[in-house]
Amino acid sequence: MSNQKRPVSICFPARKGGVGKTTLTINMAAFLANDGNRVLVVGADDQQDAADLWLASSDSYDAENHKSFAGVLKGEYPPEEAVYTTAPLRKVEYKKNLLGHVSRKWLGSQTYTFDIMPAGEELFSAVDASNERLLYDRFDNGFSQKYDYILFDIPTAWYDTTTLVYMYVMYAFIPLTDNASYKSSIMTMNEITSVQAMGYPIKCLGFIINMADGRDGSLGQYLAGSFREAYGDYVLPHTIRFSKTVWNASAFSIPLASYNKAPVLDDMYEVYRDICERIEEDRKENS
């Protein structure tokens, strides 16, 4: 492992599709950047490259001709050359009001951005599976220290790329959407445990109930209850309701942190704060 100070690194793994891994990754990155952090999102899934959507309005990104995470892993160029910056996004000050809801204030003309490293084509064939230190070698040579947080958008299947990310990241938060997610969560926890047994620092700090039915809250409450029976306090206290607002925002390449006010924004912000609190607690315990 590198002795240099490393940024906080996070992933949202699941062995079930459609649980919102990419959406969580981008929105958590945006909230972190809105709070003044230097943030990088690494696309580690070439089947759904986050860059194609979230860099659509950025002048720095050409969807047909760009460098990528795949090229970095192959050693074709340094990681600095595969980083693209989002278009400026409106900066917001978030606060909880007396009713416990999230209030916000636009901060005039202030903006924020964050960086994305596209996945690239043929990513899964770019990995040298025999080199467990590949990500350390590529990132921890001065590059990663430019950031406070690095978030990896990983695939559903367990590829060699997934293993390399598990070996590199510090924290995992597993999204759950329905009862079918239970099997997925067990598989994911087993994978994380196997990597921990090899001496790598990854920790699962919680489960996120994502895209729960927001019409009457009954499904979300049921899922929260059933998952807490299985996992106890590992389940984050706040639930993200299902909302078309999430998809509408992404269609315009605008994370919820800077999008129109909607109930799901409260949920996403609360989960963001839950994640930050758990990371801060863990780092204090191990400082």
Provide a short characterization of the protein structure.
With 287 residues, this protein is an alpha/beta fold. Helices cover 36% and strands 18% of the residues.
Strand content: 15-25%
Reported by name, the CATH topology is Rossmann fold
What is the CA–CA distance across the termini?
17 Å
Structural class assignment:
alpha/beta
Helix segment tally: 9
Tell me the helix content.
25-40%
Mean pLDDT: 89
Cross-sheet strand order for the largest sheet: 3-6-2-7-1-8-9
**N-to-C SSE series?**
EHEHHEEEEHEHEHEHHH
Question: How would you sum up this structure, described in words?
Answer:
The structure is a single chain. This protein has about 290 residues and is of the alpha/beta class. It has a single domain (about 10-285), classed as P-loop containing nucleotide triphosphate hydrolases (Rossmann fold), CATH 3.40.50. The protein contains 9 helices and 9 strands. The chain has helices at about 20-35, 50-55, 70-75, 135-140, 160-170, 180-195, 220-230, 245-250, 265-285, and strands at about 10, 40-45, 85, 90-95, 100-110, 115, 150-155, 170-175, 205-210. A 7-stranded mixed beta sheet has the order 3-6-2-7-1-8-9, with helices on both faces. The protein is globular and about 55 Å long.
Write the layout of secondary structure elements.
Layout (H helix, E strand, L loop, with lengths): L7 E4 L9 H14 L4 E5 L6 H5 L14 H6 L9 E2 L3 E8 L5 E11 L2 E3 L16 H6 L9 E5 L6 H9 L2 E6 L4 H17 L5 E7 L8 H14 L12 H8 L11 H23 L2
